[in-house]
Amino acid sequence: MELRPISESWHRIESWLRDRERSRELASPATSQDIAWVEGRLSENLHPDHRQLLLGHNGSGSFTLPPHYEILSTSEVVDAWRIKTDVWGDHPRSPYHRHWVPFASDRAGGVLYLDVSRPRERIGAHDKEGTSLLSPHSMWASLPSLMHHAADALESGHRLDRYRRPSDEDDFLLWEVVLPDADDN
Prior knowledge:
Blueprint: H1 6-19, H2 32-42, H3 48-56, E1 64-65, E2 69-71, H4 74-88, E3 100-105, E4 111-115, E5 124-126, H5 143-156, E6 163-164, E7 176-177
Antiparallel strand pairs: 1-2, 2-3, 3-4, 4-5, 6-7
């Protein structure tokens, strides 16, 4: 599968939301100053894919990535990173490391993150218990992959791993968990 740039996936997601009169719920793009502020607070450079995500929209509003992760704004990235590093510390046996920069949150203590010390690393997940496993689905291979798969699922209506796109009638754009024997429609 040829991955497209995150900006193209954002455009496809925006179109899907616009068709449902929901695009106004997305945040405006982050600025280069917003990104520099985050990098200064974290003393880490953001992963280039994370930077592109924020340049598309500085947070996701009510739109979520599968299954229920809201894209964090620049200030939320700093807050989530501080909480994770304060709670879990940065010692050799810590289940959370300072190089893991969150880009999305389930708002219950769980985050999706990119390891800025390993630019080709898969997306990681860390829940409130200090662990989390993502399925082996290819959407978790990278942030461009996640955005591409999400845009495909929104447009086609096909199931994405264990998730079905949000319903047009839902107030919150949450992905529905599909049981393994349910059909793809």
